[in-house]
Amino acid sequence: MEDSHTYRRRNVLSGFLFGVGLVAFIDEAVFHQLLHWHHFYDLSSTTWGLVSDGFFHALSWFATVGGLFLFADLRRRRSLIPLRWVGAVMLGSGVFQLYDGLIQHKLFRIHQIRYGVDIFYYDLIWNGIAVLLIAAGIWCIHLSRRKEHVR
Amino acid sequence: MYVDKFALCIAFFCILSYLLAMKYSAKSFKAWPLRKLLLFVSGIVIGLQAVAGPIAMHAHHSFVYHMIGHLLLGMLAPLLLVLSQPVTLLLRALPQSGGRAVSRIFRSRYARFLIHPITAAVLNIGGLWLLYTTHLFHYMHQSSLVSMLVHLHIFAAGYLFTLAMLYTDPVSYRKSYLYRVIVFVFALAGHGILSKYLYANPPMGIAAADAQQGAMLMYYGGDLIDLTIIAILCWQWYQAAAPKTSLSAAKAAE
């Protein structure tokens, strides 16, 4: 069936988008606003860093809202596959967290995770969590596919 | 300083016209919802704050107030006004010949070019880059004519951009939702990048602390209003893609 194939992919798209938005939101709310670890702009950023930050910030708002509307769309079509969706959320979160941790923090130097501390362990945990999320996400998506075959 | 009195007169004129249009449209159509009148009036009043009253007064020497004014005039007021659908109301209120003339204007090549999402985004965000990264910002505080033109542009470009994203009024030659979303993400990125750029590079004659506060207000305030526009856009998309219509239409086509 062509339709169920589309909806299986839409489960991944919706989850992935929401995952990206979720991590961006946690980053903004927890690390910028509550902990004040991240800085708005620490003036050591490259031009590309500013462009990348602006672009992903814009994209993350759309990803959150669009991902949730897609979720509602899957529900009204009774095509939601919860395991697959949750897996995609983890995948999206992990990918964006890794991009933030490696490219934006390290390569573009937008800002660091925290200031006045040995940053190595923070980076290690940050990116380690990202890799774990990606692995768990792929595992869940894989599992949801296998379940379908068994059925 | 006649600018604020002039703006006040225009605002009264606009609200009066809207009320009159409501009266005429009710002759041949269902009554125009009061909710939209409320949107229109709040849009006008909020936009007015940037040119008359305390915010406008402080904006001459404080960048933060200048930014509050711009958020209201260039983003919030246009959003409220676009949602009040003034052109739809106008089309309903005018006699047939007048309505045809208005829709001819809207279908003209010039209007088509202006309402194209990319043109609207460039006019809106490009105008801001021009204002804050060139001497224009400095001239704006020297001459009240330049100041008035800048305000006019900020409002008109904000309105055009919001309309080009939401299509709440009859716009011919519409772009798809995906197209508009992509343009929107680029425009929002341009807005965010400019805010961070201003954080590090204050416009001429602005103290660093004032610029940083203003830049952060621009960043987060802009986010809040743009988030509303994204939510409305996605909501429209979600409704347009409802399975009932699309599935039955697809079945009918088979």
From TrEMBL, chain A:
Transmembrane annotation, as ranges: 12-35, 55-74, 81-99, 119-141
Pfam families per the UniProt record, alphabetical: DUF2243 (PF10002)
Keywords, sorted A to Z: Membrane, Transmembrane, Transmembrane helix
Entry keyword annotation includes Transferase: no
InterPro entries: DUF2243_membrane
Domain of life: Bacteria
Protein name per the record: Membrane protein
Species, as recorded: Terribacillus saccharophilus
Lineage start: Bacteria, Bacillati, Bacillota, Bacilli, Bacillales
From TrEMBL, chain B:
Keywords noted in UniProt: Cell membrane, Membrane, Transmembrane, Transmembrane helix
Pfam families: Caa3_CtaG
Topology in the lipid bilayer: Multi-pass membrane protein
Chief location of this protein within or outside the cell: membrane
Entry's localization field: Cell membrane
Ranges annotated as spanning the membrane: 6-25, 37-57, 63-83, 113-132, 144-166, 178-199, 219-238
GO CC annotation terms, alphabetical: plasma membrane
Protein name: Membrane protein
Organism from which the protein derives: Terribacillus saccharophilus
